[in-house]
Each structure stands twice: as C-alpha cells, then as structure tokens.
Design a protein that fits this description.
The structure is a single chain. By secondary structure, the protein is an alpha+beta fold. It is about 25% helix and about 30% strand. Strands 3, 7, 8, 9, 10, 11, 12, 21 and 24 form a nine-stranded mixed sheet that branches. Strands 16-14-15-17-20 form a five-stranded mixed sheet. α13 links the parallel β27 and β28. The chain is globular, with a radius of gyration of 29 Å. The model has no long low-confidence stretch (mean pLDDT about 90). The structure holds one RNA strand.
Length: about 575
Amino acid sequence: MRMSQLFSRTLREDPAYADTRGYALLVRSGFIKQLGAGIFTLLPLGVRSIRKIEQIIREEMDAIGGQEIEMPVVNPADIWKETGRYYSIDKEMARFQDRVGRDMVLAMTHEECVTSVASHEIDSYKQLPQFVYQIQTKWRDDPRPRAGLIRVREFTMKDAYSFDTSMEGLEKIYEENYHAYFKVFNRCGLPTIAVGSDSGMMGGKVAHEYMYLSPIGEDSIVTCSSCDYTANRQVAAFVKHIEKNGEPAPLEKIATPGTSTIEELAEFLSVSEKQCAKALFMMGTFVDPETNEEVQRLIIGVIRGDMEVEENKLQNAARANALRTAHPDEIKEKKMFPGYGSPIGAAEDVIVIVDDSVAGSSNMVAGANEEGYHFINTNFGRDYSGTVADIASARAGDTCSVCGHELKMNRGVEVGNIFQLGTRYSEAMGLTYQDENGRRQPVIMGSYGIGVGRLLACLAEEYQDENGLKLPISVSPYQIHFVSLMKDQAFSEELYKKLSDAKLSVLYDDRKESPGVKFADADLLGIPVRITLGNRGFKEGNLELKYRSDLSTMHTLPIEGAVDELKKIVEELESSLR
RNA sequence: CGGGGCGUUGCCUAGUGGCUAAGGCGCUUGCUUUGGGAGCAAGAAAUCGGAGGUUCGAGUCCUCUCGCCCCGACCA
C-alpha cells in the first residue's frame, strides 16, 4: 500500500476525548474513527489488523473442529420470548417492529438463534457432537461505553456454540476451547489469564473469563499469591474467619443514638465491627414465570460489619435479574429503617439473604428498624430467617480458600469467555435428539465468546511506547514499513514492487514529506519491520533496517538480496507467534 | 438512570458582554529545502452544536434541547 494513497491520515496530537493511551494511538494512527458513543468505523489499517485477528480465531476454531456459520443480526422476538430473555434483559437489547408490526430484536448474542437453527438440523445422537462459530456484529446498548474499542455498543464478536449428548462431551469441547483461547491470545501476543467467573445473563454453571490484566480494566480480578486460584471478584471465594461470640443470649433492644454507620455503632458499643451485622437494601427485578411480567421486590443483604457486600453474589443468591439501590421510602414501607436496619420485624415479602459470616456467628448487634435503636444478641435462625449464602466481596489480603495463602487484587479487561450452558436453551426451545434407545433428550450446550475489537484495543494498550503503537507482526496491518527518502523514487518503486511480488505486505511511504514526518509516522503506526532507503545508503548499496521493538538499534541490509533476507526476517517474526 | 464536565474550521486550543472570532497543527498554490514532525510567501476553511430568551450589543448570561466525555449504577 502506498502511503500517499491511504484513506486515513495520522494526527499529531492526541484527540481530547481519548481516555486511554491505546485509544488515543488507535485514533491518531488512523485505525478507528468514532461516529457516536460506542460506535466506531474501522479504517483500512484497523480493518487489516482486525482481519488478521479474525483469521487467527478462525484457524484455532477450525483446529478444534469448529464450523463457521453466519447468523442474522435481526431476530424475530419470538425466539427470545421462548427463552424468557426478551423479558429478563432490559434496555440493553434493541427492539423494534417490522413493517407489519412483528416484534423484532437486534441479537446481542445468538444462543436463541443457534438453538433454533440446531433444532432443525439435529435429530439424532449420531449427529452429535457439533461445534459452530461465527464472527459477527452485535449491538448491545451499553449504558456507558468507554475507552475506545474497550467498551462499545456495536462490536464484532466471535461467538461459538457446542452441542453434546453428555456432560463429558461438553466438558471435552469446553476444555478444547479453554486451550484454543489461550492459543488465540498467545498468537495475537496478548497476555491473558483465565479466571472463574459469573455466568451472568448467559445462565449455566461453569464459566471462565479471559482477562487481560491492566489498570484500565473495569473488572476486579482476585488471584492467589501462592496457588493458581483466580476468579472475578464477582464470584471470588475466600476464607471467612468466624468467631462465634458465645452461646445465644436473650435479645435486647438498646438505644444507640447517632450510630447509622457501623464504625459509629462499634465505637458506641465498644464492640468489634465483626460483632455487628449490617444490612444492604436493594430493589431486585424478577420476572413472574406465569405472566412474564416484571416485579420488583425488596432484598435485604445481611453481612458482618467488617465486610462489604458483593452485589453480584447478592443478585445471584436472590435469583434476581437486576438490582438497584433501594430508596429509603421503599425500605420503610417494608417496616425497616435505613441506618438501623435488619430483617427482624421486616415485612414478610422481603427477600432476606444472610452472609454465612453472620449466619455462623452468634449474638450479633443488628438494627432494630427504629431510628436510634439496635438489638444486641441477635441470632440467625432464632430471631430471623432467610437464605444463607456467600455474598461478601473478596479483598486484597483475604485468605485463599484453596491453599490458605493471601489473595491479591488486579484490574482486568475481559477479552473472552466460555460458558457451560447445559440445557437451559435446549429445554426452553425444544432442541432435542433421539438417543440410542429412541428417547428424546435435550442437547447439552456450551457457548464461547471473544470480543474481537476489544482484543485489538487491549493490544494497543499493551504494545505502545512514547512514540506510538508497536503491535506484534501477527496483528500488525502490514509486515514491513518501507520509508523511501530518495529524491528519485524510481528505484524505490522497483523495490516496492519486488517486495510485494514476494508476498510481503508492505506499507510504502512514497509521500513527498520530510524525513522527520515519515519517521514520526512510522513510529506512530509501529509496523514491526522498517526499512529505510536514502541517498547515502543507496550509493553504498544498503538499506537500513530497524525493528519497531527496538528503535535505537539500526541494522544495515545490502540491497542485493534484501527481498530474500526480509522474507526470512518476517517469517522468523511470524513464526515466533505461532 | 443519578452526579459532574465540555461543545469555537479536519485536529489541538485562545477568547469570560463591545470593532471584521484569534493562534498552532493539518490542507491548497508557488519557490526553496531533503536523514527525526523544514523555511518563506500567498490562500481556503467556523451560520462558535441547535432552538428560544435577556441586552443597544451574546461565542461569552439565562432557559430548553441535542451530542460527546468523566464518576457511579450496568456490561463482552
């Protein structure tokens, strides 16, 4: 490609709106251009990188038996109603009606579609297992896009779906994907770790997320300092050291004026925060299975005073579709009092979720649901009841539940995920097969996603320096950046043709610009191999060779045989990422 | 959806009630220059996001609205 012909151009300054450096560099170098919040155009350089990433994904999916398909972005709402997600997913999914008023949606993932398709294709155990994937556009109306391609509303995702007759089969393909994902990320050059995760809106049990650890990440990742335990904080387990506080004593209400926080309360009563039970009030959204209508119910999460509630855990324990902070009036309506709240004396329809730290302790201090009053000696089971669950948020320094060593906390960006779905979708949509005995059985499914654009965004965060991007050759838009400084371009043209004929992908800077401009742009775009032809070197019969990974070292490359030598260099670089 | 911020030319910014809206980068033309963002000269490009209002006078103040960004809530 001739740089003089390139559709995009480079910017000398960071755009004001870019909140991460990788984003700024992708914009400045002409990979992407924003059209609206979370909506981007991929420019030619961006497309070339994305295509290479997609090709790597294809190869690795094919290698484990994946068959590529392409499903429609627009889905009839019916199939989403069948699984209930039409109702359980809120504004994140775009809905509209077609010309005759049929409900339609923009598919934000394709479990419904693929299950529907598979139900027409699959009838017999002899056809299973199956594994299909697609690379395709999704629209998710995220309330808060940010950081360029890290979090967008329209994005390209590789999504894959497995169909099996047994859990063993599912585990096998899950395992194969688990490793294939690492191959994909390794070939792209992105360091990732797999962490145990919540299955979120996908449903199902076992799930992993692939995390690129970075301060710009929005997820909190718990890792053990000693063993290989890792998990998203949303689900991370840790050891709770529980102190019983003695045999249950009689419940007593006492005046505790001005103690609406746990610190104030513990101080006032001269007890440890660990002996207090604090309450978090949330409004949960549930879907009535009969009417498919949304209902709101108040949830109280009870946790020991020295811990914080992990809302995701609370939501799962309460089996709510969504949570939001409850208003004080909503709390009072259920006979509880914010700041002095507890499940004791609460209205009957309140969902009570009690952290095991509180359930396992005795004689806790808890709110009396009256301003300025607390109970002492409250005991779970005697004074109130509810669902016992782990709803506590893990923190750095907590104890690993696997090996007993200290847990660490990191930020991470989720670039991929894999879910064991089980039969949730096949049962809801009647995807069954006949087994050897002629009996109908639901197909066991898995789903596997990679955010393609997000992967590029993560690479831009990982591979950069003060001069610009320096993407690995496996995802770089071109292999070679050929900077010509010759006044007479005839020889450069010839060399460019030879390089192209040798099937090397070359960005050829043939512009009538000063050397400084060309070098600065070459640094910014960060094509891994750079050759420069100037008048001096030309006289001596040499090209200059630099690697973007080490700009301070200049190599000399004889023009004679340069094409073969470059082919070797490129091949070596490429093979280091296979 | 709450809280905050910002919309001035392709990009970055100045302008804080008073003349024809200013500068840098980029762009066009000419001449010069040619190894790390060149020089000189001449140009083009902005209904100051939009609507309404206050005022003798509004980019500037007020109201509404749209868009974008940030912090939360939420998500791949």
